[in-house]
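Encode chain A's predicted structure.
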Amino acid sequence: MKSFLSLNSVLFCIQRRRFNLNNFWNRQWKRRDFGFYSVVKPGFVSKGHPVPEHISRPSYFDTFVPSPAPDEAEIKTPAQIKKIRDSCRLAQFILDSVGKYIKVGCTTDDIDAIVHSLTIENNAYPSPLNYRGFPKSVCTSVNNVACHGIPDDRPLEDGDIINVDVTVYLNGYHGDCSAMFLVGEVDKDGQALVKATELSLQRAISICRPGEYFCNIGNEVELVAHKAGFTVVPCFTGHGIGSYFHGPPDIYHCYNNYPGKMEAGMTFTIEPVLAQGSHEIVILEDGWTAVTLDNGRTAQCEHTVLITDDGAEILTDHVT
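Encoded structure for chain A:
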């Protein structure tokens, strides 16, 4: 799943505001031209899909409150690594599979139904569902929605860009990944944004190895973003992952001084969000949907990585 806001990242930079939606959407923004696309407004959100009794569920299924994560970045055993590798492979398989259905006229609610069905069919649980009250099984963020978009009845339009963020809980471990998809004919500005975001993730992963500072991930992302003429949205972080959905370390995608170094056996996500304009975002009244203050488009890509003895393995690499 996409990167839910950690408490540290909220304190770090986010502007969490509540607006009257009518006033918010009617406001006239003074901004540069970001290209040709529709500004997304929230639609109707249907009820979440049921989870069969035989599916193993995380602690927050009933309470909405996740169990505490470790206090420090966890060094995983070979047995733990096998389980998280299996969950990551399933998450990427589902992400690759749902990508085949994304087209003009498809709704994000349709995407949610497909992700939920594929997850259940593979005896896993869709991790976003009920996590701190999130109502659906996947996050879908279109155009000016930076992160945590809730699937609804809005049909995808020609020229949209969409992030689909899939996380599954399999055999007691979470696997997390996301990717950008182009819907129909996307303008050059949108294509460039997606390409730069994908490159920033690749560059960030390329430096991961034992002894590397976590903070250097943000440096790499910033360099790619600035060279391409885009802005990093700093308030969404990557995170440690395992039997817990989110835990240490926090992975910042901007210049930072977060302490600590990578060690073999650590698993965490890297998931930069790049924007066309300002880095400022607003959380809408649903408590989740993060939109850009200037209505500029954003893009986000994510992998779960394992630090190995001599580098890093992308656990959510594409299934072949």
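The chain has one domain: 7-19+74-314.
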